[in-house]
Design brief:
This protein has 89 residues and is mainly β. The chain contains 1 helix and 8 strands; from the N terminus they run E-E-E-H-E-E-E-E-E. The chain starts with a strand and ends with a strand.
Amino acid sequence: MGRVHRRGETWLLVNEGTVPALDVHVEGLTELDRRRLSAAPRPLLAPGEAVEFTLVSRLTLSGPANVVVTYRLDGDGAERRRVLQVPSA
C-alpha cells in the first residue's frame, strides 16, 4: 500500500501489490490524526486501484499525520497493518 497526493487535502491510498486487498480501512494513528482524517472503508481494493481519503488541515490541526491502513490478503487471513506518514500538503 502506498499513498499519492491528489490535490489540496486529498490523497489516494493505492494497492501497489499484485493481489487484491480485502476489508481495507484507513484511520488516523493518534486522536488528532483521527479528527483530521476522513475515509470510507473499502471491502475490496484490486491491484492498482486506489481509495481516496482526506486529511483536513486547519490552523490548529496542520502538519504531517500518521495514517493506519489495515487490510487482509484473503478472507480468513490475518489482518495486516501498515502506518504511512502523510506530509502536510
